[in-house]
Amino acid sequence: MADEANEMRDAEVILADEAGRSLPCFIEQTIPIEDQEYLLLIPVDAPIEIFMWQADPDSDDEDEVLVDVDEADIDSLFATARAVLAEQDLILQRTALTLTAAGNLPEPNDEDCFTLEVDEGPDPQTEEFQILATFFQDDQEYTLCTPLEPLLFFAKENAVGDIELVTPEEFQQVRLQIEDKLFDVLD
Q1: Nearest to 49 by CA among 107, 88, 100
Q2: What are phi and psi of 5, to 5 degrees?
Q3: CA quadruple 43, 165, 93, 100: dihedral positive or negative?
Q4: How many angstroms separate the CA atoms of 101 and 40, rounded?
Q5: Over the stretch 162-173, which tens digit does the pLDDT of each residue have?
Q6: Of 144, 146, 161, nearest in space to 83 by CA
Q7: Helix (H) or strand (E) holding 110
Q8: What are the beta bridge partners of residue 71?
Q9: E-strand stretches of the chain
Q10: Maximum Cα–Cα distance for the chain, whole Å?
Q11: What angle do CA 115, 120, 121 make, to 5 degrees?
Q12: What class is the 2-44+152-186 domain?
């Protein structure tokens, strides 16, 4: 059984988006539920986020905060971001669902890592990132980061044999069953 799980982990599938971009992923886990097999996927290459520094609207000081770059702005930043990462022998790729970088990431250290609050409210969520590089374009500072926790996708094979993301609605319908199966594997 362990050999079968290891073979599955080595298997690759391709996720695609509406723009025709692809994202190669390893199958981390298969989760059979009723007559459907769900896949827990992890990108083959490192996911990359581009953040920009902006004045904090909630502060009277000159504090700045990191904010996500809009998808529409990535096209104008891509060539510069790619050149900056190339200096570290990383190849930035415009893949489906996320940017990725092929190559060996530097080992994270405390000076290059930060925690970002990604969900405000009564139970705020945080995400940890490693800074890979910074650059300026049009007098704006940008930071290229990779999350320290794996980026995971839930997917399934559709009727024509393509791998597609599970919709948020479908995920909510099977979430408890998926969690039960994942915790059974960990035991």
Answers
A1: 100
A2: -65, -40
A3: negative
A4: 20
A5: 899 999 999 898
A6: 144
A7: none
A8: none
A9: 12-16, 22-33, 36-43, 46-55, 64-68, 91-94, 99-102, 113-119, 125-137, 140-147, 153-157, 163-165
A10: 59
A11: 140
A12: mainly beta
Q: How many CB atoms lie within 10 A of CB 103?
A: 13
Give the model confidence (pLDDT) of 75-109 as tens digits: 999 999 999 999 999 999 999 999 999 999 999 99
For 22, which DSSP code?
E
Buried b (16+ CB within 10 A) or exposed e, 42-68: ebebbbbbbbbeeeeeeeeeeeeebee
Helical H segments across the chain, by residue range: 2-10, 71-86, 168-186
DSSP 122: S
Backbone angles phi, psi at 10, to 5 degrees: -80, -15
Residue position matching structure tokens 């893949």: 95
Per the document, the length of the chain is 187
Indicate the SS3 state at residue 74: helix
- Contact (Cβ atoms closer than 8 angstroms) between residue 51 and residue 143: yes
Q: Which pair of structure tokens corresponds to residue 43?
A: 């990108």
Residue with tokens 């930043």: 77
Quick: pLDDT tens for 42-54.
Answer: 999 999 999 998 8
- So where are the chain's domains? 2-44+152-186, 46-147
